Recover the amino acids of this structure.
């Protein structure tokens, strides 16, 4: 069918194509089974690079709005997208529309799709989690909570948990913080939300790594910030490229997401000096540094900061389970009260029984034991994947060396972004879930390559999964 896309005056061309096709599907202008124009043809029609269209189509495919079949083109999915109720909303639910920013923010489907060979990033292996111990501690916490009357708690968090976190990060990461500096939140996502609420006015400039973690970018955009992608090289964020008058910069210095490089010490010092000059806040997301398989741990920016410019964020999504929604923020004293207020107006506080159970889990030593065990489990998977990358996959991929975390990034040696997209689609048909690097571009050109996560794929499936992936890269 003839489908009209207009890019006049638009900047984020890929995003715009994505939004317009998505809008057409949700509004029923494109129906299940309708074919989208081939990417080459649409690119020619719009005078854009083919990659621009491919990245938009991939995003639509990842969110299940469209299905790409090799040789048959890209068609609107049978169910017209993952949330068919949205198609009907306009007619049946009245005229109210959310702010336009929400059109460009996808609803993640990471929680529904599972592949037999699952190389997606950021998912820990729940089969090793000590569920029985956790259940016991949770029920103990529920009992003492019932005795206390189940009333509202401190927005800063459960005292015992804040103390346990302060001890843990001092020991594991060298972060010096008192329990007062720690605020318990419902995961990194909320940590960034409360920090942004305390520090940003609409229109303020925020810098994020490019390529980078998309969810933080969407969060800042949803709050009205102007978000700029700042390039990352093999030493981490390129500090010289930070835009002037940036108010907040978000970084993942221990294990850059998604490339996996640690930020060089010289860069960390440069970044701190820059923030001091700009009076900007640095948000340090230390999301998976507990899993380090070689080398000395990277010193967090927080420990190098002498001026109170760094907000340090940690999450229990990798070390425990993402379903628990537990994380924390370490704030400089000048922000502490405002962060507590922001947490209070957002959701009062994170569920007290969960916090109390986690405090017991840490205090009893189960948390440290679980991390030690998982370091071994993930270390073995990391070794299998890095070996395969330097062996059976070496003609196709060039691994970016990394010695920590739950994924490895690899750049394509010769394949274009389009070719990698096609390989990812073939892999999906072969039962292999893998993400391509191009999806993490912010403002810069999409990188051609793959991310290989090993958090949720058992070691015994890695070899076969990579064999299948290799076949998909060869075609
Ligand atoms: C860069 C980064 N930060 C943080 C997280 C964890 O987020 P949350 O604590 O909201 O689950 C992830 C999870 O994938 C991540 O990739």
């Amino acid at each position: 069918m003839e489908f009209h896309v207009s890019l006049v005056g638009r900047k984020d061309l890929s995003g715009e194509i994505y939004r317009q096709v998505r809008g057409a599907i949700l509004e029923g202008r494109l129906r299940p089974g309708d074919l989208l124009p081939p990417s080459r043809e649409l690119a020619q029609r719009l005078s854009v690079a083919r990659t621009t269209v491919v990245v938009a189509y991939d995003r639509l495919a990842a969110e299940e709005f469209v299905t790409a079949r090799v040789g048959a083109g890209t068609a609107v999915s049978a169910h017209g997208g993952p949330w068919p109720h949205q198609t009907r909303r306009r007619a049946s639910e009245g005229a109210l529309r959310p702010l336009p920013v929400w059109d460009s923010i996808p609803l993640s489907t990471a929680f529904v799709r599972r592949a037999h060979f699952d190389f997606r990033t950021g998912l820990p292996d729940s089969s090793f989690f000590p569920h029985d111990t956790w259940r016991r501690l949770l029920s103990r916490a529920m009992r003492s909570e019932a005795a206390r009357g189940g009333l509202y708690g401190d927005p800063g968090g459960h005292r015992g948990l804040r103390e346990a976190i302060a001890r843990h990060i001092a020991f594991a990461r060298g972060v010096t913080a008192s329990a007062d500096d720690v605020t318990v939140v419902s995961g990194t996502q909320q940590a960034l939300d409360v920090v942004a609420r305390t520090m940003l006015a609409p229109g303020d400039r925020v810098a994020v790594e490019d390529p980078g973690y998309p969810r933080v970018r969407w969060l800042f955009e949803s709050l009205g910030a102007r978000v700029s992608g700042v390039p990352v090289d093999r030493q981490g964020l390129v500090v010289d490229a930070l835009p002037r008058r940036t108010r907040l910069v978000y970084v993942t210095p221990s294990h850059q997401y998604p490339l996996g490089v640690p930020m060089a010490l010289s860069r960390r010092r440069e970044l701190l000096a820059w923030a001091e000059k700009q009076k900007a806040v640095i948000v340090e997301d230390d999301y998976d540094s507990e899993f380090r398989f070689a080398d000395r741990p990277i010193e967090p920016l927080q420990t190098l900061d002498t001026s109170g410019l760094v907000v340090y964020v940690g999450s229990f999504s990798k070390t425990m389970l993402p379903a628990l929604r537990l994380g924390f923020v370490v704030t400089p004293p000048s922000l502490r009260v405002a962060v507590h207020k922001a947490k209070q107006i957002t959701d009062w506080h994170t569920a007290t029984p969960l916090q109390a159970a986690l405090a017991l889990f840490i205090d009893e030593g189960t948390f440290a034991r679980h991390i030690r065990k998982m370091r071994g489990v993930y270390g073995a998977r990391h070794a299998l994947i890095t070996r395969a990358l330097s062996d059976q996959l070496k003609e196709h991929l060039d691994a970016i060396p990394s010695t920590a975390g739950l994924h490895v990034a690899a750049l394509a040696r010769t394949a274009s972004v389009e070719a990698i997209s096609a390989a990812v689609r073939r892999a999906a048909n072969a039962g292999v879930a893998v993400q391509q690097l191009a999806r993490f571009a912010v403002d810069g050109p999409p990188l051609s390559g793959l991310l290989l996560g090993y958090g949720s794929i058992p070691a015994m499936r890695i070899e076969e999964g990579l064999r299948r992936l290799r076949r998909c890269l060869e075609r």
